[in-house]
Amino acid sequence: MRTLIMKFGGSSVGMTAGLTQVVSIVLNEHERWDRLLLVVSALDGVTDSLTEAIQLARLGNQRGYRRIIANLRTRHFALADQLNLTPTEHRTLDADMDRLLYDMLTHFQRISDHLSEAEQLAVGDAITSVGERLAARIVAALLRQHRLRSVALDATDLIITDDKWGGANPLMEPTRSRLVDQLMPLLESRITPVITGFIGATLDGRPTTLGRGGSDYTASILAECASADAVWLWTDVEGLLTADPDEVSTPPQVIPALTYEQSAELAYFGARVLHPRMIGPLRTRTIPLQIKSVFKPQQAGTLVTDHIAEASSTLQAVTMIQGIGVHGSQSGILTPLLTRINEVFVEVTGAPIEVTISAQSSQESFICFVVPTTAGLDAPPTLAARVGEALARSATLSQWTAQIVQVITVIGAHFDTQHHYAADLMRLVEGLPLLAIARGPAHCSLSLVFAPEDSARALDHIHNYILGRRASAQR
Known about the structure:
With 475 residues, the chain is of the alpha/beta class. The chain has two domains: 3-236, Acetylglutamate kinase-like (Carbamate kinase, 3-Layer(aba) Sandwich), CATH 3.40.1160; 317-474, 2-Layer Sandwich (VC0802-like), CATH 3.30.2130.10. Helix content is 45%, strand content 19%. The protein has 15 helices and 16 strands. The protein has helices at residues 10-13, 16-30, 46-58, 62-81, 87-112, 117-128, 130-145, 172-188, 215-225, 260-268, 279-285, 335-349, 379-393, 420-428, 452-474; strands at residues 3-8, 35-40, 150-153, 192-196, 199-201, 207-209, 230-235, 257-259, 289-293, 302-305, 317-328, 356-360, 365-370, 401-411, 436-439, 445-450. An eight-stranded mixed sheet has the order 3-4-2-1-7-9-10-8, with helices on both faces. A six-stranded antiparallel sheet has the order 12-13-11-14-16-15. α5 (87-112) packs antiparallel against α6 (117-128) and α9 packs parallel to α11.
């Protein structure tokens, strides 16, 4: 039986215009597929608001976090009021949302009682999961209003993870067993489940989260475990773009197709449309991914699969992401330096250092550590300050300095053999101080590291070059 998983983002479910599109899309695809699963994010900005409320609770600011909860209640209830639900459906939805908010309030009170750091992280995951739970109930109620059998399901009952709070890892075998027991009977009865993105639970039932933007990851986990035929991500853009429109002067274009490797690199190095970890489960079972606009569903969007036509596999996109660069008058083995920086990354982000880019001479070294977008907007300046302080306090590492840098990454193909692309990029950034350059081992990414003040010009030059290459290929 053919199974489709569709994930809807916060911009789709956070307003009536978007929800109208969601209903239309779901009703249409329900007739075309044997099994249909929906995954939803929290309304736009809700997770950020809950994170802010957690910080206020840790400071003992009861009035502050209660104000945020009250505002979230008002926003969700106002949205429900605009859906023209039947009185019974409306009362049920309001009661469900009030229960979730009341339970969340008890979690905030626990934080105020000065829990240990580990306990605070666990309670924090329970709190930040509420946004998706509220959204799932709104969408399911709206679908029932349109005579589609639907039920909201918490992924805490489906996706089993470890206890790495804030960035949990799924345990696929127990998750697969849960799906067989709890999800498949619904699908066989032609009931459309609306599943909360972003969250899971440990084997003993404690809520966890999969990292910022983790609803995409939820969809791919479910796809692998349910042997889905396709995954569609519905967003507020028409697909993956050649660049972030907020960062370049020339309007970017939609990329028709990418490989799994290219999309994974694009996601890791800054594309916010995709969660960096979502590609892995899809690649395992060769499940195609389509990224489409909820407001322009007739557009093809971007297809991600294991193979794309050679003509479209050269230069695809350019991204920019912040990193932490360290420079010192030392070369050779740098294990003590890497160990200390890794400790700071774990303290600040909860995760170890991952991608590094380095340049060494006989007497000097420069090393760049990419800061994943899932770490949050405040992570780069915090990391730069904390790394700098840690190095300055060390008797053996005080010669090292730390700074924020920008990592510009070109996504393409065959960078291991088509060296003229690297030569062209060097000419494009002529005159701009280049701190480091590295080619990814999958041969589909080429990263250049610049100081923040030089990055905008470099990014613009490279993006215009990519658009020119695409135009030439289409002639």
